[in-house]
Amino acid sequence: MSSNPETPVTHPATPDEPLDLAGIGIGPFNLSLAALAHPLSHLRTAFYDQRPAFHWHPGLLIDGATLQVPFLADLVTLADPASPWTFLNYLKTRERLFPFYFAERFHIHRAEYDAYCRWVSESLPTLHFGHQIDAVRWNPERETFEIDYTQLGADGEAEALGRTHARNLVLGIGTTPHIPVPLRPLADAPAVPVIHSADYLDHRDRLLAADHLTVIGAGQSGAEIFLDQLRARPAGREGIHWLARTPAFAPMEYSKLGLEHFTPDYTRYFHGLPERVRDTLVPTQWQLHKAIDHDTLAAIHDELYRRTLHGGWPDATLTPGVSVRTAGRVGTTKVELHLDHTQQGTRSRLTTDAVVLATGYRERRMDTLLAALDPYIRRDAAERPASTPTTAWSSTPPSPDPSTSRTPKPTPTASAPPTSASPPGAAPPSSTTSPTPPLTPSPPAPPSPRSASHNPPPPTPAPSPPRAAPSSPATDNRARRRPRHRRTPPPTDRHFRQGPAARQKTRQKTRQRPAKTPAPRPAPIASPPKRTPTDRSPSSPAPN
């Protein structure tokens, strides 16, 4: 296994020679896509990010914190174990493979995962950091995307303008920290530290100096910050309060059968469900990605228990089932939180010196970036870019409907494109794919096994061979015909897939199913001649 694979030759993208695939944003998903596409010399790709370099949640690289997924869920292994960009090959290039083997560590440190991703990002020539994407347009004549960007200098100032062209586009712009509405005015006030967990390490020393600290949020980030602060504060003078809106500090679903939710089989099953069913199903699966891993919960309990060995009780309070209704300042150095207790139906106040908001992330808005593409994007009932297996793209904008003030959304005109948010991801199409290019935004999808803000998504599968474009209208019409469905039972919650042997057995049972006995014909008006049982015709009903 080589650590320095042969680099494909790259050429500037022009309208006549566009890229096969352009990616906007370089997070773990697009970094995985770039690593899997790198050895494919016939595939021309480029990925852009406005940051100067790759950094994976630097504010949450707490000392000793580990990933919630095994190291095999790196950028490429589950899609291409022989790739030179696996985590094990990274260890080999750093001469750390045997120490890792002796450590018997299945879940690696978060800082080590960040170092691994930076190693990959610094080795791929198709990644372009310091490039801010300004606009994306569709050129229907050339059937390509036109992507305008600004090249930024080391100080973040604009240095040059540029444009590239691509047949296909993948959006991997990630999420942004979410601050609840009641606390937004306080988060902008410099006097009192009210920060989001994404910036925790930048403010850690200031938070430790506070006499009383409140952590809001019952996810993995909130648990790790609470544990880190608890360990660093003196016994008996901890002064820390942990609030959660959920009714309990719940553990994450990590059973072996529960992990079946993150297989490609379940992903296909999920996206085959109706939209309303998917929207109902996702909130019920919150313990798959919003809860706390068992080791962190155990470490918190052990630390609290250890502080009671010599009598007394630590000055630490854990309160689930409450929400922040309003908040305001008390003087110049304190914050007062007005709380609602859901189950008790009561209200209370909490005064604190600092607040950490482990309140999660929200999707970045793409309205401005994709404004010029809106006429081409098919949306679902909630006005989100469609995430069904059928394409969400049309190469021709629809004509305005005179009976309405809105432009009707186009009908799909190409075969199903891969979606960038479907685990384990999508393969980049090659230059010989259908001339109608799919747009692959980040639609809602079943949560990744650990899709919390600081955990990597599953790797993207290796790109598959391209499909040939339709050669004539006749072949195109045949391609659009609805496929015949096999009489196989649909997946159930008990098991999400059938193996080849099970499917063959089901088909055999279907073929061997006895035909229904035909109903007896009504007796004729004239009485037929009597017959003995030996002359009974095959069509006559059998005697009782």
How does this structure look, described?
The protein has 544 residues and is α/β, with parallel strands linked by helices. It contains 12 helices and 18 strands. It has helices at residues 28-37, 87-93, 97-103, 110-121, 184-187, 204-209, 220-232, 264-271, 275-284, 294-306, 473-480, 500-512, and strands spanning 21-24, 45-49, 127-129, 131-139, 144-152, 158-166, 169-171, 175-177, 194-196, 213-216, 240-243, 316-319, 322-330, 334-341, 346-352, 354-357, 361-363, 439-440. Strands 3-2-1-7-18 form a 5-stranded parallel β-sheet, covered by helices on one side. Helix 7 (220-232) packs parallel to helix 10 (294-306). The chain is globular and about 75 Å long. The chain starts with 20 loop residues before the first strand and ends in a 32-residue tail after the last helix.
Question: What key attributes describe this structure?
Answer:
18 strands, 5-stranded parallel sheet, alpha/beta, 544 residues
Helix content: 10-25%
Major β-sheet annotation: 5 strands, parallel
Oligomer: single chain
Order of helices and strands: EHEHHHEEEEEEHEHEHEHHHEEEEEEEHH
Total beta strand runs: 18
* Spatial order of the strands forming the largest sheet: 3-2-1-7-18
Strand fraction equals 15-25%
Report the C-alpha radius of gyration, rounded. Answer: 29 Å
- Count of separate DSSP helical elements: 12
Structural class: alpha/beta
Mean of residue pLDDT values: 78
Shape: globular
Low-confidence stretches: 1-10, 390-453, 464-497, 524-529, 531-544
Q: Please give the alpha-carbon distance between the first and last residues.
A: 75 Å
